[in-house]
Amino acid sequence: MTVRVGSTLREEGGIVYEAQDQRPHPDFSFETVNFDVGVVILKETIMYGPTVQPIKLVDKNQEPHHGEMLETTGWGYTSVSPLKIVSNWLSGTAKSF
């Protein structure tokens, strides 16, 4: 597995880092795509720059409140249909929790 940083394109630009390990959420379901989150441990430390910056995560003991807006980004599937369409452009969305 590799991780691309510093680009909004899935297959070009930015810098690609190799993963050392990946840990999907233990409740992830391919059928429903629920709990589609995980942790990727990289072999190298990411170098920050103008197009590569860390994201802010919630504090350890903080939980989102009902109705709070959350942002997600990714190149993942844009459909849960059998076609499994994957976007070439980084996309984002804001959703109410």
Look at the helices and sheets and give the structural class. mainly beta
What's the order of the H and E elements?
Answer: EEEEE
Distance between the termini: 30 Å
> Nearest-angstrom radius of gyration?
15 Å
Task: Tell me about this structure.
- With 97 residues, this protein is an all-beta fold.
- Helix content is 0%, strand content 32%.
- The chain contains no helices and 5 strands.
- The chain is globular.
- The protein starts with a strand and ends with a strand.
- The mean pLDDT is 83.
Write the layout of secondary structure elements.
Layout: E1 2-5, E2 15-24, E3 38-42, E4 69-74, E5 91-96
Antiparallel strand pairs: 1-2, 2-3, 4-5
How would you sum up this structure in a few lines?
The chain is mainly beta. 0% of the residues lie in helices and 32% in strands.
